[in-house]
Amino acid sequence: MRTAAFLYPWDVVGDPAAADRLAGLGIQQVTLASAYHSTRALTPRHPRHRIVTARHSAVLYPPDPARWAGRALRPATQDWTAGPDPFGAAARALAAAGLEVHTWVVLAHNSRLGAEHPAVVVRNAYGDPYPWAPCIARPEVREYLVDLAAEAAVRPGAAGTELESCGWYGLAHLHAHDKTGGVPLTGAAQYLMSVCFCTVCAVGYTRLGVPAQEVRAAVVRALEPQWSAGRAGPGDREGAGGRDGEWAAVEELLGAELAGLLRSWRDGAARTLQRAAVRAVRDAAADGFRVLLHADPAAHRCGANVGVDPADVLAHADGVVLPCTGDAAARADVLGPFADRRDGGAGCRAGGAGRPDGGADRPAGAAAAAGASVTTGASVTTGDSAATIAANFTVVSGLGGSPGTLAADAAHAASLGATELRLYHAGLASDRDLAAVGDALREIGDNSGKRTAC
Q: What is the pTM of this model?
């Protein structure tokens, strides 16, 4: 089963042993950050440092001056990793060790952009700005993100790309000294706190038939029970409904008509960005360059794994990278809707209910939860090509990952339709975690010949 590990350039630059160490795990690919948000990262094996502080969102290569000349929205450069092109230096070292390199591009998650251009960010129903979340409905933001996607994705030596945050970002954000957990929010409340009321979105709601001030008032009313201790609302009853229950709660809180209006506006903005970004990358790349999106099957969800309609995204991208850390039911919930999206019965069938209307999310079926028998190398066919469905597992114990169960978890993901693995994150993992990953990948390799082919 093809496996890739996520990595930062600073995990490799200045560490001559890094590339060979990674190749020794048994992975085939490294998904290497070329445009990334601010972070503070541990480098447990680097010979020169232990902590890297990326102070702001930046590209990790020299941006093209001609592309960005005279533009207000432009990518920032970095100075925390040595050399003019950290991505390029790391990519060359990884390729020399026999690893295929793909770019890892973070798009609509950029605190520096929001701080410098506060007019372009998401504003919630209370008027609060989210500086980390540029509003993707705004034409100037979309133009910036599409150009960034093309430039940051198609770097020398890269054979493909994975686009993260290629859609709506919202309230949830790993922020310095975060103090937002005092009132636990349901999934429905997270959504309502992520609905944007910037000037462009306000005009959009009005053009769809409801004045923006009415939409805003309805969202504020729906959120009020969240702030009042002891008062329950529909959003508190999501229970085990998962993604489907979240959206049902939104409809109950707002009413189906208003919820549908918000869904129409936001889904349309996300699809427009995603299709434009994929098209721009393809136009800039050579034939055979793979374009994947980090995604979630619930279109209303925001964040790094953006909400998409599975049928739509697989119609134009080469595949998706899906969050699969969690229990078996959680994996079935995220993988099932994508594995069900195939053309005319081609490819391998995984369990789980389909989404024939391409709209409201539906829970994966019992067969998916049980883990139907499917070859590890199964593929889902969309149109004329097989789509990649990559199951992304956290393999850092300190971040909640379970590298010790990776082989079993990967087999279960494969039975649900996953065709590849992603491991988050080879640079952050301890030696013990990496050893467990190596053992798991050898076990997966040993068992691959025992699977039943379609």
A: 0.89
